[in-house]
Design a protein that fits this description.
Blueprint lengths: L1 E5 L3 H12 L3 E5 L10 H6 L6 E4 L5 H13 L5 E4 L5 H13 L3 E8 L4 H4 L2 E5 L2 H6 L1 H7 L5 E5 L3 H29 L6 H7 L9 H13 L15 H11 L5 H13 L5 H14 L6 H9 L4
Parallel strand pairs: 1-2, 1-3, 3-4, 4-5, 6-7
Antiparallel strand pairs: 5-6
Helix pairs in contact: 8-11, 8-12, 9-10
Length: about 300
Amino acid sequence: MQLGMIGLGRMGGNMTLRLEQAGHEVKTYDPHVESTASSLAELRDQLDAPRAFWMMVPAGEITEATFVDLLEIADPGDTIVDGGNSNFRDSERRHAVAAEHSIHFVDVGTSGGVWGVDVGYCLMAGGDPEPVSRLEPIFVALAPANGYAHVGGPGSGHFVKMVHNGIEYGLMQSYAEGFEVMRASGFGLDLEQIAGIWRYGSVVRSWLLELLHAAFEQDGSELGGIRGWVEDSGEGRWTIAEAIAEDVPVPVITAALFARFASRQDESFAAKVNAALRNQFGGHAVRAVEQAKAQTEDPRG
């Protein structure tokens, strides 16, 4: 089957390779990477109608601009697929706008990261049955066995991926906190060793744990080459916003997102306020900046 892949970054490039290995014909466009086409219009001309364009570009302005440009050059009956981490509300809107041009729109939540080229990508497709069914050979080639589903109507694919990533936040934070408790203990625990044995038989074994063990192998049990700055790409925030709208409590995901915010502060002003208040009402000692800096430089004395 033919497909036009737009965006050849870590995900799009590997997905293209996996599709080609499965025998599909993939034409490509990325202004920053060697591609089969030098423009979206040329990409269109390299594909037979009805065409399928797969956007694998960063969510936000780039996705919106690419979508608008595709509407200008696509023909009725063509399909636009968004495989990035777009907000599901945007996907619902884009489906409606595309329909006005008699163009199909399918939103596909895609999970698998840099490992997907070898082990496959979990795909959560949302959209109308006809274009999803027509693209199924592509989905099956990208996904491992039992790793693809048409989860519902327009927007549902990105909605499910949003919740997936919210859950991921909580799982990652739980591992992070548990290993910090073990690191702070007086037992001199070998964290790489523990992460290793937990991969086998333990009820907390998971792919994330396997990746943590790999990180310990690479950077040591102190993860010395990694700064504790944790970014978020939006899905956790969106999950919490939808939970609020639905009156559903999500304390773990919320706490995990706030922990990411805290990781970006060199020093918390809120903590300063807490320390100052304890000193004012109870006479509790406060640490001067110089004292705290000295202890940071030599935390073990």
